[in-house]
Amino acid sequence: MTDFSHKQAPQLELSGAALAGDLHAYPGSVELFGQGAHPADVYLVNSGIIKLTRSEANGQAILVDLRFAGALLGAAAVISEKPHPFAAITVTRCALTRWSSQKFRSLLATDTKLADRVREVLSDEVLEHVARISQLTCLPARERLEQLLWQFSARLEPDDLYRRPESRPRLQLPLKHYEVAHLLSITPTYLCRLLNTLEKENVITRTKGWIIITEPSKLWHMQAS
Questions:
Q1: How would you class 55 by CB atoms within 10 Å of its CB: exposed for 0-12, middle for 13-18, buried for 19 or more?
Q2: pLDDT of residue 16
Q3: What is the pLDDT of residue 161?
Q4: Cβ contacts of residue 130 below 8 Å, gap of 6+?
Q5: Most exposed among 112, 114, 143, 180, judged by the fewest C-beta atoms under 10 Å?
Q6: Considering the domain boundaries, does residue 3 fall inside one?
């Protein structure tokens, strides 16, 4: 979820590879693969939101990150032939292109354009992980929340994002309250306080489960490259 810029997520250029993959629609709350599972498939996110979660031996669990349209899920585990280090679960309705691990490795070996693009996507993920760690450590919680709201308003699909006539984004958070708090590395109580502050300052308004972004320009923050 690290890219909070105005640009849309880069799309993976598949050339003829898309024809070799199966396009599937998934409802929310479907586990695509589990933590520690043998990598059997690779998924390209065409639309929707995926959450990545991880549990440790002491029972603690975290929401590692989110993936949006353009993301490639499971590719690193398939290429390295190692178990998945996290679980991937659909948050919203998702349209995904799926390849078996064997088919994906075969495509990488024969489609040089696809192989180059996959390397770029995986490299971008590494850089984003570093940026996310820095943001969690250095940025104030309010700024992290503002960025997340901006990202949801920019990336949620038309069915989930309703724009009022005056073009103010109106959205329902796709995550549970405690999941948003986990993602921002704050407590649910502090998240409530931050949302109340944004509402008092008229940056957002809330009504019947909707968040209306009154001042969209105040949510976006330029990030260091």
A1: middle
A2: 56
A3: 44
A4: none
A5: 112
A6: no
pTM of the model: 0.81
Q: Is residue 4 part of a domain?
A: no
Tokens linked to 217: 């320009």
What CATH number does residue 171 fall under? 1.10.10.10
List, in order, residues 6 or more apart from 143 with CB less than 8 Å away.
221
Query: Could you say which of 136, 156, 172 is where a domain stops?
Result: 136
Q: Mark whether 94 and 144 lie in a shared domain.
A: no
Among 39-53, 141-155, 183-197, the minimum mean pLDDT is found in: 141-155
User: Rounded CA gap, 30 and 87, in Å?
Assistant: 11
For 31, 42, 85, 203, the CA distances from 37, given in Å and listed in that order, are 11, 13, 8, 43
Residue 152 belongs to what domain range?
Answer: 140-218
